[in-house]
UniProtKB/TrEMBL annotation:
It comes from Methylomicrobium album BG8. Its EC number is 2.1.1.198. InterPro entries: 4pyrrol_Mease, 4pyrrol_Methylase_sf, 4pyrrole_Mease_sub1, 4pyrrole_Mease_sub2, rRNA_ssu_MeTfrase_I, RsmI_HTH, SAM_MeTrfase_RsmI_CS. Residues 3-203 form the Tetrapyrrole methylase domain. The lineage of its organism: Bacteria, Pseudomonadati, Pseudomonadota, Gammaproteobacteria, Methylococcales. GO terms for molecular function: rRNA (cytosine-2'-O-)-methyltransferase activity. Gene3D superfamilies: Cobalt-precorrin-4 Transmethylase, Domain 1 (3.40.1010.10), Methyltransferase, Cobalt-precorrin-4 Transmethylase, Domain 2 (3.30.950.10). GO terms for cellular component: cytoplasm. Keywords: Cytoplasm, Methyltransferase, rRNA processing, S-adenosyl-L-methionine, Transferase. It is found in: Cytoplasm. It catalyses: cytidine(1402) in 16S rRNA + S-adenosyl-L-methionine = 2'-O-methylcytidine(1402) in 16S rRNA + S-adenosyl-L-homocysteine + H(+). CDD domains: RsmI (cd11648). This is Ribosomal RNA small subunit methyltransferase I. The keyword Transit peptide does not apply. Catalyzes the 2'-O-methylation of the ribose of cytidine 1402 (C1402) in 16S rRNA.
Length: 250
């Protein structure tokens, strides 16, 4: 059997790829990529000349079946996405799942990932966090999505498009406390990298007043709810004592 390599590529700065990733991309039989034209330009930069096949959101079930046959026949395949780590808000899940289910080895080549890069530089708590993918596209869905995260004690992170970042921050301001801290991480690793720590009361105005803050790629990180906002969980002993005290109340 062959082997499937899941290879992270840069999220902007072309220097952010590992030696091992370049070596692996140079020697695999086949590279499965989201956008073949985009990836060929990237490969050219590293002097890599391998056969590239397409695996994207709209063909991935069929492409996974084809690639599985090739893995069974002994080929080695690298899976890449347009940027960052495959399967993180990117295609590849059916292929990885099918390969693993078939008992064929799947090996990760770690590297850039926008959410981890943003988290590492945001200055928000990192011991527990949740990644929420892309925020929904409509305002009402976004408000429900933000409300559902309101009591989470952990830092939460989502991806947002430049077309919706302002609307998203405005919606968030309507449903979450104004003092909640958040970090807007934009164009990470690129020329116009910007990482701003602010509060919800100020975030939308900050983005609205600067057109540059409405361009590029965004990760938004929101601090978890403070402990005082968390529902209190009583131990059974505390419940028993509280129960008997309440019985004594007039
Ligand atoms: N697989 C990628 C990863 O590992 O981060 C994410 C792919 S997802 C389709 C693309 C989204 O990731 C963008 O819309 C943006 O929200 C975020 N993103 C990607 N590159 C970024 C960057 N350089 N700076 C900020 N956000 C970025």
């Amino acid at each position: 059997c062959g082997k499937l390599y899941v290879v992270a590529t840069p999220i902007g700065n072309l220097g952010d790829i590992s030696y091992r990733a370049v070596e692996t991309l140079k020697r695999v039989d086949l590279i499965a990529a989201e956008d073949t034209r985009h990836i060929k330009a990237l490969l050219q930069h590293y002097g890599i000349n391998r056969k590239v096949v397409s695996l994207h959101q709209h063909n991935e079930e069929r492409a996974a079946a084809d690639l599985l046959e090739k893995l069974r026949a002994g080929l080695s395949i690298a899976l890449v996405s347009d940027a960052g780590t495959p399967l993180v808000s990117d295609p590849g899940m059916p292929l990885v799942q099918a390969t693993r289910d078939a008992g064929i080895e799947v090996s990760p080549l770690p590297g850039a990932c926008a959410l981890i890069a943003a988290l590492s530089a945001a200055g928000l708590p990192t011991s527990r966090f949740s990644f929420e993918g892309f925020a929904p596209r409509t305002s009402s869905e976004r408000k429900s999505f933000f409300k559902a995260k309101a009591d989470s004690p952990d830092t939460w992170i989502f991806y947002e498009s430049c077309h919706r970042v302002l609307a998203s921050l405005q919606d968030m301001k309507e449903v979450l406390p104004p003092e909640r801290r958040l970090v807007i991480a934009r164009e990470l690793t690129k020329l116009h990298e910007t990482i701003v720590k602010t509060t919800l009361s100020e975030a939308a105005a900050l983005v609205e007043s600067d057109r540059n803050m409405q361009k590029g790629e965004f990760v938004i990180l929101v601090e978890g709810a403070p402990k005082s906002d968390q529902p209190v969980e009583l131990t059974s002993e505390q419940e028993r004592v509280l129960g008997s005290l309440l019985k004594e109340c007039p």
